[in-house]
Amino acid sequence: MLTPEHLHALQNLPLAARQAAEGFLHGQHLSRRKGAGMEFSQYRPYQPGDDLRRLDWRLAARSDRYYLRESEVDTSLTVHLVLDATASMNHPDDNGLTKLDYARLLLAALAYLATQQGDAVGLTILHPAGLRHLPPRADARQLPRLYHALETAEAAGTFPSAEVLAPLTARRQRALTICVSDMYESGTEIEGLLTRLRATSGEVLLLHLMARNELEFSFRGAVTFEDLETGRRLQLNADQQRAAWQQQLQEWLRDTARQARRHGFDYHQLSTAAPFTQALREFLRRRVAG
């Protein structure tokens, strides 16, 4: 599988999504159900109320018995992709990718993969100016819509207010919600939104995205850090503060994971330097389990 840097270098989101996901489809055994699809599976006896269009009339003429042709079709699912597009997602890693760059590529690959499974896919981009929401659809034009929304998404400001978010949870609709966020919040607004989505929609897969230079604290010497959402600045010596930073970071990551799992989210931490393998695998695992 290509690295995130190579995929980003293509400067073509549809192509990058396809290349990231296609190899992952090979050898996967998908959950299937009986239905009226195209691939023949077996016969079963006719029962009152069955669709007569599925009756095998030739077999009935030969045997004087009435059977329906059953087929296998892929189980389908509604997938709700959620992108945190607050200003902290503009943080760049040492490989040149921002968190937003990585999230775009990852969500595009997930959208492609879900579409290949016949799933209805929707997208919500969380932005303080308002939500950009594409309702879930399974038609052929949905994937280009999703790509365009992701390509034009910009990260800015802080997390949307409760009033802005209210339409997302106003309607109950069973779905697998997949949220990509760095989980930087002033209170518990991200956790609160995902808790409400879990209550109204069902499963939540939280992909907690961190830059590798944050995780490893690869900075050297005197550094000025700026909070991208508040503008506050902090000057420190990175070499002197590395041990304390990493200790506090690990404590925060443990607390974040523990809280997410306590609320029933399927939580996974990702690095902007890592391939998309884990996230794609978790999607397929949740899809089969559902």
From TrEMBL:
Pfam families: DUF58 (PF01882). It comes from the Bacteria. Residues 42-248 form the DUF58 domain. SUPFAM superfamilies: vWA-like. This is DUF58 domain-containing protein. It comes from Hymenobacter psychrotolerans DSM 18569. The lineage of its organism: Bacteria, Pseudomonadati, Bacteroidota, Cytophagia, Cytophagales.
